[in-house]
Fold this protein.
Amino acid sequence: DGIRVDAVASMLYLDYCREDGEWVTNQYGGRENIEAADFLRQVNNVVFGYYPGILSIAEESTDWPMVSWPTYVGGLGFNQKWNMGWMHDMLDYFSMDPWFRQFHQNNITFSIWYHHSENYMLALSHDEVVHGKSNIIGKMPGDQWQKMANIRCLFAYMFAHPGKKTMFMSMEFGQWSEWNVWGDLEWHLMQYAPHQELKQFFTELNGMYRSEPCLYTRDYEQEGFEWIDCSDNRHSVVSFLRRDKDSDDFVVAVCNFTPQPHSHYRVGVPEPGFYTEVFNSDARKYGGSNIGNLGGKWTDEWSFHTRPYSLDLCLPPLGVLLFKLDREKTQAKKVQSMN
């Protein structure tokens, strides 16, 4: 399928983990390891020459430019780069008590500022569930219900965010213990309802993602993402659009990062009609409180968020909602109103 190169930064910088006097500059007086960069370009040229369809992923944590750009324009030739900044921002944000999240809205929004500079992969990997860091469920605040809800909220936001996705085994059913290379996963937890429900959440989240091209066909194009509102830090809510590459379809994502539900929360949308609620991370079958919008909402002719129409929504606690315009239902109502 491909390769993943770990700790690329340790190869690219001559002074990586070295004190002054322990390294020598390159011929231009800089700290960049020019030979290592040329080596990585050659590796990717050879690999893609034999296997054009594979993945070549860089775990690179610095601002070295064009890591995932082709070699013929000066890039290193990888076609994916782990977004380490997004990972740290998300885990810092979700580990804090939800009340304090209103002061850290930037953790949620900052990644979009630089996202389209590389072909980013959003990664929650083995590195985050070892060496005393706790597994993903242990990082979440609150009681068990809130911990599970935070996990659903985190991963639903991850799947709605631009970029490819990767997660580590055991996260999908809420293992409590850290990953142990010498031990088995804690499959016995699957006898308990909260872990069964979390696994069903991931099963259906993956199914929904694969069925909605809006969520993946324009991951690396600026036109594929558009904020509706990213400034409501008082409620810790963000909303945005994801657009399809080959059609006019789009998905509206609304994320509530606190345990406080919100009724009559208005979100601007670009077109009138009926918006089907295609995914709700707070559904009862996932262990949630089952707060939602009864399958969808009709728009109001009420301009909001600089959009000509808006939806009057009910936002669940620690929940992510995804809506899609039902063009057939909208057209049917339009025809009916004309007769």
Q: What stands out?
A: The chain has a mean pLDDT of 95. The helical segments are 8-12, 34-50, 84-95, 105-109, 111-114, 144-160, 193-211, 327-338. The chain has two domains: 2-214, 221-338.
